[in-house]
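User: Quick sanity check before I run a bigger batch. Here is a single chain. Can you write out its predicted 3D structure?
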Amino acid sequence: MRIFKYELKRSGECKIRMPVDSRIMDIQAQDGKPVIWVACDPQSNMQDRSFMGILTGDNVFEGDLGSYLGTVQFQGGAFVQEGVFVVHYFDKGIEDDEDTGTKPATR
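Assistant: Done. Predicted structure follows.
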């Protein structure tokens, strides 16, 4: 078992290749980008997992959300001109079980 980091999109849906049975530990902003840390077996087959970032005040359909992961606040920087930008993240689940060999970031 190892811990890996994956970068998410700031908002909207994104798919990430990660080992089967990856367990999400946390979501936070790092260097102005949303990232998740997962505990996983890097020798496992890889699968697509879908995530959704919803801005505060955006319209969404409940069926689009998935399981709540956490809320990330972005302050200042190139992404946020003034104040705080808040995004709520959801795990929409597994997309398929094809193995592409894609490996996660380790920083």
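Strands lie at 2-7, 12-19, 23-30, 33-40, 46-55, 67-75, 84-94.

User: Great, the batch can go ahead then.
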